[in-house]
Amino acid sequence: MLRVDFLIPFIVGFCAVIQAGLNRKIAASWGLSWTIVLNTSILLAVGFLCLSMGLWSGKAASSTFRLWYLIPGLAGFAIVAGLPLSVGKIGALSTFLILISAQIIFSALWDKGFEGIALSWTRALGATLVLVGAWIATK
Questions:
Q1: What single-letter DSSP state applies at residue 66?
Q2: Residue 80 contacts residue 36 (beta carbons within 8 Å)
Q3: In this structure, are residues 19 and 83 in contact, taking their beta carbons and an 8 Å threshold?
Q4: How large is the greatest C-alpha to C-alpha distance in the chain, in angstroms?
Q5: pTM
Q6: Which of 36, 64, 79, 132 is the most buried (most CB within 10 A)?
């Protein structure tokens, strides 16, 4: 049975594959730069729509701005630019298996370093099984 709290990352995973695959096709005819501009324009439009509808509230940018706030945007750019390139070179399955492997490693480091969540033996075993499975599938 699928747990409801697993639904969001499941949908995001689906969207990542669809986005990378379709961006690769768009980039083949428009070029990657224009594909990124299109993606960014849509993201901004949807973001402003959500903001104007009050879907997510928050404070406007002010003196609380920190330079590290730019990192998520740069990471998003790397995802939007990098995934179609990788899918085109090694295919969607290998791209996402390697991506998931990297996410597992860096998620464990993030949990420990920033969230204070220890890596239990069960979490380590599960992560190791996924990493081994990804390694086998990319052979």
A1: -
A2: yes
A3: yes
A4: 51
A5: 0.76
A6: 36
